[in-house]
UniProtKB/TrEMBL annotation:
GO MF term set: oxidoreductase activity, acting on NAD(P)H, oxygen as acceptor
Residues of the NmrA-like domain: 13-212
Classification via Pfam families: NmrA
Transmembrane region(s): none
Protein name stated in the entry: NmrA-like domain-containing protein
GO biological process, one term: lignan biosynthetic process
Family the UniProt entry places it in: Belongs to the NmrA-type oxidoreductase family. Isoflavone reductase subfamily.
InterPro entries cross-referenced by the UniProt entry: NAD(P)-bd_dom_sf (IPR036291), NmrA-like (IPR008030), NmrA-type/Isoflavone_red_sf (IPR050608)
Length: 216
């Protein structure tokens, strides 16, 4: 079944494309990641052109994908001696626990207020720069980590030299940690989207601070 036929089969239903990341239309995609973003944008335009009811869920960084290793590629646990930080560590990043993302998404499924809009999942305590995340971890383990900062130029060079899948992961790092593509401080235009924690205040989400306690 081609994309058009598939979308036509969804008429009368609400379509939630499996983006579950960040806004693919406002990013700095390079290499393999660029093609991933472009494919997601193509699906958005096709959905809208066919008049399929939709909700785009922006869940940002899945906790389990980053926090157990503090964004250290190849690590199996959060660092206790040294840490590598891509860029200057200052852009804000949004972290969400997977179960919380599911709870907000389920809430949105039959909610008419999220119809044909973007659902932004941005719990305020979960908006942290990598520098702030590392500082939070340091406070929990009572130790200052040795920090190595990777410049933008060096990261771009590392991406070129890395094999798959590391080049893919580093390309996401470039977008999120260097270019700040989570755009955590972006003011949401009500005609375009809604923020999940404000729309569904009854959902109890997990703060990053609490999530990290399991690794101490």
């Amino acid at each position: 079944m081609d994309l058009r036929a598939y979308l036509n089969s969804l008429l009368g239903q609400r379509f939630f494309p499996s983006e579950f990341g960040y806004d693919v239309e406002n990013v700095h995609g390079i290499g393999v990641v660029k093609s991933i973003f472009e494919a997601k944008v193509k699906i958005r335009r096709a959905v809208e052109a066919e008049g399929i009811p939709y909700t785009y869920v922006l869940s940002y960084y899945f906790n389990a994908f980053c926090l157990p290793r503090l964004a250290q590629h190849g690590a199996t646990a959060p660092p206790r001696d040294k840490v590598v930080i891509q860029g200057d560590g200052n852009p804000k990043v949004i972290f969400n626990k997977e179960e919380d993302i599911a709870s907000y998404t389920i809430k949105a499924v039959d909610d008419p207020t999220t119809l044909n809009k973007i659902l932004y999942i941005k719990p305020p305590p979960n908006v942290l720069s990598i520098n702030e995340l590392v500082a939070l971890w340091e406070s929990k383990i009572g130790k200052t980590l040795d920090k190595t900062y990777i410049s933008e130029d060096q990261l771009l060079n590392n991406i070129q030299e890395a094999a798959y899948p590391l080049n893919l992961m580093l390309s996401f790092d470039y977008s999120i940690f260097v270019k700040g593509d989570h755009k955590a401080n972006l003011e949401i235009e009500p005609s375009i989207g809604l923020e999940a924690t404000k729309l569904y205040p009854d959902v109890k989400y997990t703060p990053v601070d609490e999530y990290l306690n399991q690794f101490v």
